[in-house]
């Protein structure tokens, strides 16, 4: 069954956020390449691809419901970071914002009594718990090594082989 116009707009906003998130991860990858940390950069690029997958999942849901997904304006925030830890903290903060946006989408769907969108939104709620945990763990490890070169190179090597 087709979802309401209001909910369609809410989903559209989330689609745009996921594309924005992909672009943010690509920019973070660039920042890491410039710091000679190719493993971390490759992790960021892999994560950007995951974000595109999130947008596609939302688009597929709307199309299946006979709604019209619309991609809005995408802005990539300028990145100000003095060190590698801060780059990953930017990613963590962005994930926390996405989680809140998903909760808003959940509330909107509940208000509308839109039962059909529940499985899709539930998937995103679980995914966000996992994403915050993954990025939070990397931030924790980076804080532990405190920008020490050998520590950074070890994490760089680990992330090179872990994917997103
Ligand atoms: Fe699609 Fe990392 O949130």
List the helices and strands and how they pair.
Blueprint: H1 5-34, H2 38-64, H3 84-111, H4 118-145, H5 149-162
Question: Could you characterize the architecture of this molecule?
Answer:
The structure is a single chain. The chain is mainly alpha-helical and 164 residues long. The protein has one domain (5-162): Ferritin (Up-down Bundle), CATH 1.20.1260. Helices cover 77% and strands 0% of the residues. Helix 1 (5-34) packs antiparallel against helix 3, helix 2 packs parallel to helix 5 and helix 3 (84-111) packs antiparallel against helix 4. It is elongated and about 55 Å long. The mean pLDDT is 97.
Q: Which CATH top level class fits? A: Mainly Alpha
**Which class do the helix and strand fractions yield?**
mainly alpha
Query: Largest beta sheet, briefly?
Result: none
Full CATH superfamily name? Ferritin, core subunit, four-helix bundle
Mean pLDDT, nearest integer? 97
Q: What is the alpha-carbon Rg in Å?
A: 17 Å
Strand content: under 5%
In total, the number of strands is 0
Helix count equals 5
What best-fitting shape do the alpha-carbon axes yield?
elongated
Task: List the ions, cofactors and other small molecules found in this model.
Answer: MU-OXO-diiron
CATH architecture term? Up-down Bundle
Helix content: over 70%
User: How many angstroms separate the termini?
Assistant: 34 Å
């Amino acid at each position: 069954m087709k979802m309401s116009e209001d909910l369609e707009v809410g989903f559209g906003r989330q689609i745009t956020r996921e594309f924005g998130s992909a672009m943010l991860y690509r920019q973070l990858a660039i920042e890491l390449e410039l710091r000679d940390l190719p493993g971390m950069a490759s992790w960021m690029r892999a994560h950007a691809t995951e974000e595109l997958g999130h947008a596609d999942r939302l688009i597929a849901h709307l199309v299946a419901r006979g709604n019209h997904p619309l991609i809005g304006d995408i802005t990539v925030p300028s990145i100000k970071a003095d060190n590698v830890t801060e780059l990953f903290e930017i990613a963590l903060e962005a994930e926390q914002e996405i989680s809140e946006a998903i909760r808003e989408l959940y509330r909107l769907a509940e208000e509308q009594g839109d039962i059909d969108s529940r499985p899709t939104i539930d998937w995103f709620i679980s995914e966000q718990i996992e994403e915050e945990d993954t990025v939070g763990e990397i931030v924790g490890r980076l804080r532990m090594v405190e920008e020490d070169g050998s520590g950074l190179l070890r994490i760089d090597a680990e992330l090179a082989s872990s994917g997103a």
